[in-house]
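Title: Comparing notes on inverse folding

I've been comparing how different people in this forum approach sequence design from structure. To keep things fair, I'm posting one structure and asking everyone to reply with a full sequence. Here's the target:
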């Protein structure tokens, strides 16, 4: 099946990045969000990121202009009914995602494929609430989308081969690499990554190290490009907590218990870079300063 028009639900850090790469690859993109501000902010960020890519010689100016011309926005979810593929990238909460799919389904064309960029929620369960579980799957990009090469493709129990092949074709056209994961909590990347981040927060909580010593240790001691707390801020602490809760609930193993300090940061609204404060404070002019 030929995919030409892609609908994106949620214009946050992931939705915007997905719109960026899809438009650059020649797809027509229609993006929606519950807030006009999110849509405007996302478009402005895509423009800035594409401008930077042009300055660095990674994208030619004509391709940037064409990509920007292919992205449209709407506040009306049902407008996405005319797309061939929907990528849902709204907040990581199952009730929100279910409500989006329920509202969208009556407006879809029969051939439209539904996907979710969820980091952890069961694809089979999300699919079962729609009229097309066979044309539903997980389409999990990494952050930042324009930079990261991997897309995890997750089949629900009912996903058919044509749907998988069509989604794999999109990943190929985006110039990215697909890895296939089975539909179990948090799939592959976050099943391994999030317990490490959660353990870093426990290490901080128990006073074994400071924010700086923990991040320095993993950067220089394990050759990670970013420390785990820096990375958690980058991902969003609410998203990290949501994924730990899905692992804890879904696998019923206490080793996935979210660290109480992670819960506290989220309760404070210190969600990382997106709120300008998390394990680091990003509000000043200079380098971010540790908050513990
Ligand atoms: P975000 O908080 O930056 O953005 C979420 C956006 O969804 C917000 O703009 C919000 O207004 C919008 N939204 C909420 N309810 C909505 C609704 N009913 N309809 C339309 N829009 C709605 O979050 P994010 O980091 O972009 O994460 C989005 C999804 O991508 C989550 O499922 C997350 O697990 C997944 N994801 C995140 C990362 C990451 O590193 N942050 C990586 C891979 C996947």
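Reply #1:
Here's my take.
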């Amino acid at each position: 099946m030929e995919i030409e028009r892609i609908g994106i639900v949620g214009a946050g850090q992931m939705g915007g990045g997905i719109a960026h790469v899809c438009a650059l690859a020649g797809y027509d993109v229609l993006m929606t969000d519950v807030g006009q501000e999110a849509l405007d902010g996302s478009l402005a960020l895509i423009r800035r990121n594409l401008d930077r890519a042009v300055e660095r010689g990674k994208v030619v100016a004509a391709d940037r202009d064409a990509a920007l011309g292919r992205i449209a926005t709407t506040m009306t979810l049902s407008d996405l009914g005319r797309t061939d593929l929907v990528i849902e990238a709204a907040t990581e909460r199952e009730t929100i995602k279910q409500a989006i799919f329920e509202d969208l389904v009556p407006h879809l064309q029969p051939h439209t494929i539904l996907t979710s960029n969820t980091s952890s929620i069961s694809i089979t369960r999300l699919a079962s609430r729609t009229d097309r579980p066979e044309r539903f799957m997980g389409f999990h990009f990494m952050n930042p989308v324009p930079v990261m090469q991997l897309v995890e493709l997750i089949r629900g129990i009912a996903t058919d081969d044509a749907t998988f092949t069509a989604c794999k074709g999109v990943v190929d056209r985006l110039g990215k690499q697909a890895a296939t994961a089975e539909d179990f909590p948090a799939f592959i990347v976050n099943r391994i990554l999030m317990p490490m981040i959660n353990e870093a927060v426990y290490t901080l909580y128990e006073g074994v190290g400071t924010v700086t010593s923990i991040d320095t240790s993993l950067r220089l001691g394990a050759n990670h490009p970013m420390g785990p707390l820096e990375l958690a801020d980058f991902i969003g602490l609410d998203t990290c907590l949501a994924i730990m809760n899905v692992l804890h609930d879904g696998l019923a193993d206490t080793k996935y218990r979210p660290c109480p300090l992670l819960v506290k940061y989220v309760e404070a609204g210190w969600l990382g870079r997106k709120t300008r404060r998390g394990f680091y404070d990003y509000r000043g002019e200079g380098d971010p300063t540790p908050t513990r």
